[in-house]
Amino acid sequence: MASTIRVRAIANGDVTEVQALIQHPMDSGFVKDAQGQVIPAHFIQQLTFEHNGKRVFAADWGPAVAKDPYVKFGFKGASKGDELKVSWIDNKGASDSITAKIQ
Amino acid sequence: MRSVLAPILALISAALAAGVIAQAAPAADTPDPAADAKAFRDYFVTKFPKVKLDDFVNGPYSMNEDMRKQWLEKEEFPPYDFALDAGKEMFAKPFKNGKTYADCFENGGIGIRQNFPYFDVKQGEVVTLELALNRCRTENGEAPLSYVKDDMASLTAYMAFTSRGKPFDIKIPDDPRALAAYENGKRYFYTRRGQLNFSCASCHVQSPGQRLRAEILAPALGILNAMPIYRSEWAGMGSISRRFITCNSQTRAVPEEAQSEDYRDLEYFLSYVSNGLPISGPGARP
Amino acid sequence: MTRMALAAIGLIALAAPARAASEADFKAAYAAAEAAEKEAGSLRNQWITTEAALSAAKKAAAKGDFDAAIASAKEAEALAKASIFQATSEKDRWKDAEIH
User: Fold this and answer.
1) Which of B4, B97, B173, B282 has the most neighbouring CB atoms within 10 Å?
2) Which residue of B has its CA nearest to C80?
3) Helices B129-139 and B150-161: crossing angle, nearest 10°?
4) Closest-CA residue in chain A for B76?
5) What is the CATH number of the domain that holds B89?
6) Do the domain assignments include residue A33?
7) Considering only CB atoms, which chain B residues are within 8 Å of C82?
């Protein structure tokens, strides 16, 4: 099955710019469906980016983050060709991860 | 030879002379879509002299620099990516009878979005891309898709993507029914409706670039070029049908059925007056 | 005496307290509203607020609150008539907005 994570990391001088788009419903648990039933909360709780085994970005998310979240950040200390691992765990215990090469 | 032709020529020129005299009085209110389209374009180009013609298809982003910056950033990793991939998969998947969408369209359905809607002279009606896709399904034994849900939007997202950059090329055949459909679409566009008494023109002709609550209004010129769109407000992809329906509700008008005659005629008019502007879909909007 | 009696009856009649609205009154008001909304429908120009008022009228009537039901029905009728006026006047007025 295709990964839920799309990531692009580009080394730009000594800063690596990372963008990621993650496919996830991010249901807050506050929304009701057409029949009036609450759609249960289903959202990513932890998002982690690792470079050479070291965590360079971590997010603790909750219901306030919208569907299909997009993340952008920069970090230092990486070079073109290095690997960047992205992983998430949601409140239902599901998870996904992907490893991409820094361009 | 000349002796045979002379009386015939005399007859013809007499008839023409009579015809010219008869036509001296101009017909009142003859629809002239080409003139409409030129006037439409001129209005927006004059109102927004700094906006390049092709840029109008970017809606609010052509009207507001800050919004454009945010949009360009997101376009590096656009929110419609998932719908686009889903649409590509859907398009390629054969129906139960073995046929595919490609069998229903010219050029296998690739790079043809800019030709829709067109006027079907046999059926005497406007055919939009969404309608054509569902007809393709039902003709091949498949249930039609909802016009307002994700699947239809994903399919049209893929088809729009294959036409990116191609200019709208809507034709109005020399058929009074086609002209009538175009005129009906134009009428619909300018008619006030709903308790809030807005017409499409109230927002998209009189007030593009201005705010309606928290939104920046898009100009009507090129407004369908980016469809279907991923709307952050919807947290998802939406078809042209969905947008027409929600726009109606927003003026407190009871919407018509998706792909109603009025809606198809409206799409016909709006697409025609944007002829020459490039398809930019699928798009992302706030 | 007769004149006084007649006058008294007249006064009593005039001073009679307003009786609570009946289901029959509601049905008449609702029918009028529905008819107007149907006409608006034939013009393809109904308003969401009219529909909301109609369903509010129905809900109140179901609870037996005919005063409120009639009020909602009358509001629905007024809204429906306004939407008919809008459709009729817009039939020609739209051309004023057209870009030429």
Assistant:
1) B282
2) B195
3) 110
4) A19
5) 1.10.760.10
6) no
7) 195
Structural domains in chain B (count): 1
Q: Classify residue B220: in a domain, yes or no.
A: yes
Q: Residue C13: is its pLDDT beyond 90?
A: no
The verdict on residue A62 lying in a domain is yes
Which domain covers residue B215, as residue numbers? Answer: 31-285
Q: Which residue of C has its CA nearest to B188?
A: C94
Token pair 């009386």 is at which residue?
A: B7
Q: Domain holding A76: CATH number?
A: 2.60.40.10
Does A67 sit within 8 Å of B236, measured CB to CB?
A: yes
Handedness of CA B30, B31, B32, B35 (dihedral sign): positive
pLDDT band at B24; cut points 50, 70, 90: very low
Contacts of A6 in chain B (CB under 8 A): 77, 81
Yes or no: say if B122 and B272 are a contact pair by the CB < 8 Å rule. no
To the nearest whole Å, the CA of B106 is away from the closest chain C CA by: 35
Residue A55 counted as domain residue? yes
Of B73, B81, B235, the CB nearest to A21: B81
> What would the pLDDT profile of B104-139 be if each residue is shown by its tens digit?
999 999 999 999 999 999 999 999 999 999 999 999
Range of the domain at A53: 5-26+39-101
The stretches of B23-112 forming alpha helices (DSSP H) are: 33-47, 65-75, 81-92
- When divided into structural domains, chain A yields a total of 1
Burial class (CB in 10 A: 0-12, 13-18, 19+), B23: exposed
How many Å apart are CA B245 and CA C24, to the nearest integer?
37
